[in-house]
Amino acid sequence: MIPPHPNHLAILGLLISSTFLTTAKADSVNLNKNKYQFDQAISVRFTYPNSYVPKNRDWVGIFKDTDRSLPLTTYPGGDYLSFYLRICNQQNAPCPNSSPLPSTGTLKFYVTDPDSEYNNQWPIPLGRYRACLIDDGASDNVSSGNFTVVGECKKFRVQKSKKSQNMARKSRVRVLKTTYAYKETISASFKNDKKITNAWVGIYEYSTTLKKVDREIIDNPLLWVYTGCNNVDGNQPTSHNCGKKKKHGQVDFREDNTGRAELDWPLPPGKYMMIFSCDNNNPHLNIKFNRTAFDII
What we know:
Elements: H1 8-12, E1 21-22, E2 29-31, E3 35-37, E4 42-47, E5 59-64, E6 81-86, E7 104-109, E8 127-135, E9 148-149, E10 154-159, H2 162-170, E11 172-175, E12 179-180, E13 186-191, E14 200-205, H3 215-218, E15 223-226, E16 248-253, E17 270-277, E18 287-296
Parallel strand pairs: 1-9, 3-10, 12-18
Antiparallel strand pairs: 2-4, 4-7, 5-6, 5-8, 8-9, 8-10, 11-13, 13-16, 14-15, 14-17, 17-18
């Protein structure tokens, strides 16, 4: 698994164990659309009711809509939280006191900073979601854990398209050499059917039987790099996401651009193969195997 970046559980405090409180209904959340394509930015506009005073820990969250019968006024729970941002467009709490808290505003959830990731990484997986304005239940440096939906959540979908369905099937990765010397830079070419952010190429021990269902292995490449940035640090300082999109190109594995993986550079001598991943979330289902073996000697 490509490791998450900050420990967001520590930031939110008692999120998972919080109580399911609600406030009076209001049109507190609006989306720029109700159906999104894979890797498309999601803009959420929040508006507090006239009688409501924003708190400096309040936030907007994107939750998986696993229980479609759950009332829109009910807090879905931290287990289903995919992304969140405070109303001041940051994750850290509390919001700064240098300016008044906004009673309305628009937050953009995307690969670019500010980092909004919680249980998921960008791109947000295909599926059903709900966006909610959340009263944190407290102010300043301590969270009460009594999270409350302000008004009602709004539902939306990240849906399949022909391009998203064909991403992995039509993508490829090819190792440029079949034999590398120990500590030599390892290079591969790649081609993707759709330009997306945070796509990556990973190196694995060679196997003729490895399948997508072998999640323990698939989710933990020995080494990996982003296709768009050719590194593991991306081009976003906080989230370390890679916002660059490339449909084809070359990636290299060397000491100065790898890390955050199962192994550190250099790989030991052995037989390996590569996988192209269009999916930055576990389980990594949108993947393309390259069974061509290469050796490190």
